[in-house]
Design goal:
Order of helices and strands: EHHEHEHEHEHEEEHHHEEHEEEH
CATH topology of the largest domain: Aspartate Aminotransferase, domain 2
CATH class of the largest domain: Alpha Beta
Radius of gyration: 21 Å
Cofactor: pyridoxal 5'-phosphate
Family: Belongs to the class-II pyridoxal-phosphate-dependent aminotransferase family.
Keywords: Aminotransferase, Pyridoxal phosphate, Transferase
CATH architecture of the largest domain: 3-Layer(aba) Sandwich
Shape: globular
GO molecular function, one term: transaminase activity
Number of strands: 13
Strand content: 15-25%
Largest sheet: 7 strands, mixed
Number of domains: 2
Organism: Staphylococcus felis
Distance between the termini: 28 Å
Length: 338
Amino acid sequence: MIRMNKNESPIKPIDDKTLTQIILSSEYHQYPDEQYDRFRRAYAQYYDNLEVDQICCGNGSDELIQKLMFQMPEGPCLTLNPDFFMYQDYANQTKRQIYFIDATDELTFPIDKVLAAIDQIQPSFFIFSNPHNPTGHRFDERYIQALADKMQAIKGYLVIDEAYVDFTTPVQLPLQDHIIVMRTLSKAFAIAGLRLGLLLSTEQTIKMMREIEHPYPLSTLTLDIAIHLFEHQDDTKKHVAYQRHLSHRLKTIMNTYARKHMTVFPSETNFVLTRGNQAVALGQFLEEKGFIPRFYDPKTEAPMTQCVRYSIATDEELDAFEKAIKEWSEKHGLSNQS
């Protein structure tokens, strides 16, 4: 079975020989005293617009979401519905009150509606993903700036989850004390199993977040592999570029064969969302062919009724995927349904 339901990378970022060398040279019998700062330096240099003191790390973005729930000032959290489900899970774990802004029927979030909700709820912080999970939509600079200005006006924090930022053009928004950007190495950098997430903000805000940081938040092996990725920029950028190619292929396949039967949402991520009467039928057909898409439970994920999501696969797997979806499309000579 080919997994297309986790928004993971279908390929490893480092060949086996290089990985073996990294492991053999790793000082994993010692605490990673130097590796944490070395990784932060390498990451800052990769993006060329960051300082080391503007970065802190955690055991995946999940841990950092949980820490935000603990460390943000007293008051409710506000997010979008739908969005990354772990926001709600960690709010519940930490007894943080959480409110939701429901999407329109078209799964959009008009800025006026969002700003009105902020005024009404007065959240301690507003967290959301950009590009948005699960639609794949990228909120533009004007939209984000309006949110940043509103949260600053009510003395709250804006947390932007940029898990999929390397599949699109990043929003160019200067970091301020009340703006926190969250990133991960689980998507474009393809080390989901090693668990490494990051928070980016001003030195003052990062210092606040590090007040509850573990003495050694990441393992030596995780750091050694991450250091290699970001100290070998050319190889890593080629790896990211290849995944963007896979994303383009997936979108092309879906637009060519599925769009005439269902809604295919524009995406600036490594996944594509579909919706409509035929979307679930296609997903079930593809699952029978050996591809595992992301289905949604209409009872617990009501905004996603009749939605099915697909993430990238290898070129060879996408060849088989295209063949299967073409077969289904030819059997369903239907007019466009959404």
